[in-house]
Structure formats: structure tokens, C-alpha cells
Amino acid sequence: MDTLLEVRGLKTHFATDRGLFRAVDGISFSVPRGRTIGLVGESGCGKSVTSLSVMGLVPSPPGKVEAEAVLFGNRDVLRLTADERRKLRGGKMSMIFQEPMTSLNPVHTVGQQIIEAILAHTAMTPRAARARAIEMLELVRIPSAAQRIDDFPHNMSGGMRQRVMIAMALSCEPALLIADEPTTALDVTIQAQILDLLSDLQRRLGMAILIITHDLGVIAEVADQVLVMYAGRIVESADVNDLFADPQHPYTIGLLGSIPRIDVDRKRLATIEGTVPSPNNQPAGCRFAPRCPFADQRCRLDPPPLRDISPGHQVACWKAPVEVAS
Amino acid sequence: MSDAANSAPVLQVDGLVKHFAVTRGLIRRKTIGLVRAVEDVSFEIARGETLALVGESGCGKSTTGRLILRLMDPTAGSVRFKGKEIADLDKDALRRMRRHMQIIFQDPYASLNPRMTVGEILAEPLRVHEIGDDASRAARGRELLEIVGLLPEHARRYPHQFSGGQRQRIGIARALAANPDLIVCDEPVSALDVSIQAQIVNLLQNLQQRFGLSYLFIAHDLAVVKHISDRVAVMYLGKLVEIADKKTLYDRPLHPYTQALLAAIPKPDPALRTKRVMLQGDVPSPFRPPTGCRFHTRCPHAQARCSAEEPLLREAAPGHRVACHFFETIPAPTILARAGLANGKFAARLAAFEAAKTARAPG
Ligand SMILES: Nc1ncnc2c1ncn2[C@@H]1O[C@H](COP(=O)(O)OP(=O)(O)OP(=O)(O)O)[C@@H](O)[C@H]1O
Ligand SMILES: Nc1ncnc2c1ncn2[C@@H]1O[C@H](COP(=O)(O)OP(=O)(O)OP(=O)(O)O)[C@@H](O)[C@H]1O
Ligand code: SF4
Ligand SMILES: [Mg+2]
Ligand SMILES: [Mg+2]
């Protein structure tokens, strides 16, 4: 398959007064052209830091990004100049940020911001860029787009701001779209429309998508391949059908078990006890061991490597698959 | 909470209206239209009850929440908290009342002061309401951090040093600080991943049982809502279109919009990745809402009367009200395809996971 983005051995850490935070600790994956890769994992496991690292947006200091390579096409983005990166961002490689309010500028109208993005990466005239911006807002289902384009972000609802971000990210028809929780603020009907819009653009433009979400319903809907991340590492990687039908890592099983369902009545949701370990204080062995119901001595001492369980399905667990072990 | 329904309501909202003026021009701002964000909304919440408020993005849910806390003035209507009309309260009385009524904001990033440590953020509501001294406030802050699944030493950190989900938990801890009676939860878990979402939902339920809290739970995730709420109110373009107890709403939704919402829920199973039953048409503009029934431009059952005459919120059964002319005759939807995850090896593995967890639990 034609690989568009290849990340090898990515490590991102932050120097803080309480020591080194290894937010992302040696992960590798690739995103083929025209496909959708899902990145899931609990809050704080390093999903956003992964995407910011690829985009070259990790603040430094305190952040430091190291990798064998982060290849976009055949260029190593970590070795580009600041200028070359800026050119890439928002153009060929575009990102929808998790925090719509902090990434939109409160003193400019949403229209100014989208138009600016278009002008920076295309040869359009300002007038054409404005028409394009309105068209993009219509695509993401903002009603009365021609009027709302002159609104300031604070005049819009949470979901509308998120859609403005999506419109901005798509306005230059990127080859790679990194979407960090793109639909969390949206209700199901608009979410369904936005997901359809993304897959439509994907078909038309061959766009590759790296979608970051905690919503496994969204993953089931759009992803081709899924990466499950825990405490800065990838613990399971599989084709989407495999992941749901045959989850192997105890963490993945726990995650799938905590999805609230409308078709199942449960008094309490299944949960994974405890929280993600702090990135400056990772357990020595398997990072999931303190929360894993199956953990034994070996798990606590030796970190399990990510290994092939079947073609295209990798798991980092000494006991996978679990029913054999327990 | 069945017996809760008998006692006096904690919150009564009556005929609430909010219009925003939309202005243009930098020097001479002139009004070019009104956003009719909330239009004649009424409901009650009993002690210990959770009412969920659901609906499309931009339909007026957050605005309703803000009006209840009087973070903005309504255009019309009344909000009574424990029987008291909040419009009648002076500034001081309003401040005292706010101790008992809290909000968890939709946007955890914008709602935490970046220059305060988490400890200071959690102590602030107590200081404002003159509860305790520095030491007891700090102790309460550490306790709250543990309640929401963070660590006591996080009190010394600043908001930007946390991930999105962690910041949301700080917002929840802050809302709990002064032991309120009512919490308006504005999408409190939509920024969280499922496992922490499950912890927070369970936590909100525990707190409710312990302290008799009432929640207005604003959300768009109908699966979460089904889990946490007692009753559900559905909004469309500023208006309430259906309100019922949870079981009725999910088993027998009567409004075509509610039916469409339930049909659009993504199923956590890639094997079911078929074309969803999707609501057709665009969200109408809140500047010029459609005449008659506001949903008629997208409703699969619309008839001539729908664009001419506005449907009233009528009683379909005790406690179940619906704003649709034709709800009696609309065919029952065949939604809620029973989703998978039952197939494959998942079920057996989850059972093993839960069994191992129980075996480990102390006691
Ligand atoms: N600027 C920073 N300084 C120090 N630590 C940071 C910084 N940015 C992120 N971190 C830490 O890195 C870890 C990973 O954060 P990240 O934002 O990638 O999480 P996430 O997986 O995106 O979570 P969420 O689902 O909550 O958004 C967290 O523990 C966070 O506290
Ligand atoms: N300060 C404001 N000025 C002008 N219009 C506003 C203001 N606040 C909200 N609105 C408008 O009122 C309508 C309702 O907004 P609200 O934030 O209540 O929606 P919501 O239902 O919470 O949506 P979401 O699910 O996207 O958060 C929207 O059209 C919004 O643009
Ligand atoms: S390696 Fe051990 S601790 Fe880690 S997930 Fe597997 S069973 Fe649990
Ligand atoms: Mg994130
Ligand atoms: Mg809102």
C-alpha cells in the first residue's frame, strides 16, 4: 500500500520541575494514502502529543521530539526548517484540534480565520477565498453560513466552533488530515453527517486520515486500522473488524466493556479501575499491570514487546489472548 | 428515583425564552437579526433526579443551562430554584444561591483559570462562600481530587499540565466543592474517553445517591444519557419537542426528531457499518426558524398542516409530552438495531476480565 505518513520510533518528552514526562515513548505506525487510521486510548495516554509531534507543534522547551523518522511522502518532517513546516501545515497536512476554543482566535471572526488559512496555502483571490470559506461552512452544516461567517467564535455554540475548525482544516484539501476528537461536541445527527463528509472527501481526494477519538462507535464507523495506545505506547494494533471481534489486550477489552450502550441495560458501566500512570512515574514492567486484572509477577517486572499474534494484528501483552491464560 | 418525584421540585423552569441580537458593523453596530436560541421552554427537576437535555448542536441546550444559573438574563420566562424566583434575587442573594447550584462547563479548557493552581481553583468556590479556613479548604481540595480520580499532589499543578480529560475532572471537582443541590452538567463527559467517562458517570451517580443531588445533564450522546438519566427532554431549534421518562423515550419515542436521533447513534461494531438512517436536510437557521412545526423541513412524516400550524406540547401519556400534530398515527420506528459485540470472542473475554477483577477486589 502507498504509505503517506510513516512514524518510526517517536518519542516525545517534556522537561518539568518534577522530572521528565515521557508522554510518547517509542511508537511506530504508518498511514496509507486514502485510508483511515484510528488512534484510541484513555485520556492522558499521549494521543494529542503524538499528533502535535507529527505536526511539529510541540512547544519546545519544555517539549522535545525525537524519532528515527517521521516521513511525510519522502520528506522527514522533523528535519524541515520552521518555514517549510509552516508551509506544509494547513496545506498538505492539516489538523483539527481538540480544543476548538483555544485554537480559534477570539478577536477575529471565524471567516477571517478560514480565509487567512486559504490565502496562505493557495493562489486564490480574497474574494474567491471568502466564497470558498462560505462553501466550507455550508459543507459542515452551519446554517446561514453566509451570515455566520462574520461571527466571532464566542457567538457560536460549542459544536459550531468545532465545525468551524473542521471547515478550516479541510479548506485546502489536505493529503493528510489529523483529526483530534473531531466530533466530541457534536450530536449524533451532525456527527453522522460530518463523518460522511470526511469519507466522501477521502474517496474524492484520496485523503489519508488519522482520527483520534475515545469514541469507539466512531472508530467502528470510519477506521480501517486501529491503534490502541496506553501510557505513551501502542499496546494493540489491528484491522478494525479484528479489533472488535477479537480484542486481545486486556486494556482493549476493558475499553470495549466501558462503552455505554443503548441496547444493553446495565446498572453500572464496566470500568477499568485506577488511572493512567503519570508520565514521570511509569511502572517498570507492563505499564498496564497496576490496573490489569490478569497481571502477575512477570507483568510487573518485564515490559511485554509488541508482537504479531496473527497477520496484521499486534499485541503487547504477555498473556494475550486472555481466555487461554486465565 | 421514583419516590423523588413526589417531593417538591428543586427546579422549575417556565416559559423560558432567550433571543440574541446579531449585530454587524464596527462603528455603528446595527441589529440585523435575532437568534432565537431558546423559545418557550418549561420543565421541572425533582430532588435527586436527573433530567437529561438532548438535541442537535446549536439547539439551545447550553443557553438553557446558563439561563438557569442566571449567568445571562432571559428574554422572558421564570426560573424557580427551591421555590424561589431567581429573577427576584438581589446580587448578594444570587451569590448565596449559587453555592447550591453549580455548573460543569462544556469547554474545560476555557473554564479553568490558567494562572491558578488546581488547588487554588478548587478552594475558590469555598473562599467565595466563606466556607472553612485555608487548611480545611486545602484538605477538601485533596479529597475532591481523589473523588474524581486524580492525585492529591496534582493540587500544585496548573491546568495546562493536564490532558483534556483530566481538566474536565478538575471542573467536576470544582462543581462539587461547595456541596451543591443542583448541578447543571453541560456535556461533562463528551471530552472524555469511554473508560473515564464510565468512571465519571458512575461517580456522578454515586454522589447523587449519597447527597441527593439533582442534575440537569446536557448531552448529545444518547447512550450515556440512557445510562444516567431518569427523564429525558429533547430540544430542537430552541423548543422542547418531547419529554418523557427514560424508558418510555427509548422504547417508544413518539416525535419524529427523537426517532431520528435514536436511529443515528453509531453502533460500536464495524460489522454493522451500513448506511445509517440519516436525517435528511440541513439544520434550519435559528434566525428564521421554519413556520409551523420547526422540524417540518426535515420530517419524513410532514403534512400540509405542519408548515402552517405550530404543534403544542401535548400529553401522550402521564409524564410523556410530545409536540407533533400526528404522533398518534406515526408508525413506530424500527430503530435500535440490536448491535453486535456479542459475536466474536469479545463477550467471553469481557466476562474473563470482569471475573478476574472481582477476584482481585479486596473483600
Ligand atoms: N506541555 C506539557 N507539559 C507537561 N506535560 C504535558 C504537556 N502536554 C502534555 N503533557 C502530558 O502528556 C501526557 C499526554 O497528554 P495528551 O494531551 O497527549 O493526552 P491525550 O491522550 O490526548 O488525552 P485526552 O484524551 O484527555 O485529550 C499527559 O499526561 C499530559 O499531562
Ligand atoms: N453570546 C451569544 N451571542 C449570539 N448568539 C449566541 C450566543 N450564545 C449562543 N448563541 C447562539 O444561540 C444558539 C444556541 O446556542 P447554544 O450554545 O445554547 O447551543 P447548544 O445546544 O449548547 O449547542 P452545542 O451542542 O453545539 O453546544 C446558537 O445558534 C448560538 O450560535
Ligand atoms: S502483560 Fe500482563 S499486565 Fe500487561 S496487560 Fe497483559 S496481562 Fe496485563
Ligand atoms: Mg488529547
Ligand atoms: Mg452547548
TrEMBL record, chain B:
Keyword annotations of the record: ATP-binding, Nucleotide-binding, Transport
Similarity comment text for this entry: Belongs to the ABC transporter superfamily.
Membrane topology qualifier: Peripheral membrane protein
Localization per record: Cell inner membrane
PANTHER family for the chain: D,D-DIPEPTIDE TRANSPORT ATP-BINDING PROTEIN DDPF-RELATED, TRANSPORT ATP-BINDING PROTEIN
UniProt entry tagged with the keyword Nucleotide-binding: yes
All residue ranges annotated as the ABC transporter domain in the record: 11-262
Gene Ontology process terms (BP): peptide transport; transmembrane transport
Chain's role: Involved in beta-(1-->2)glucan export. Transmembrane domains (TMD) form a pore in the inner membrane and the ATP-binding domain (NBD) is responsible for energy generation.
Name of the protein: ABC transporter domain-containing protein
NCBIfam families in the cross-refs: oligo_HPY, PRK11308.1
InterPro entries documented for this protein: AAA+_ATPase, ABC_transp_ATP-bind, ABC_transporter-like_ATP-bd, ABC_transporter-like_CS, Oligopep_ABC_C, P-loop_NTPase
Organism, as annotated: Bradyrhizobium jicamae
SMART domains in UniProt: AAA (SM00382)
Origin: domain of life: Bacteria
GO cellular component, one term: plasma membrane
GO MF, one annotated term: ATP binding
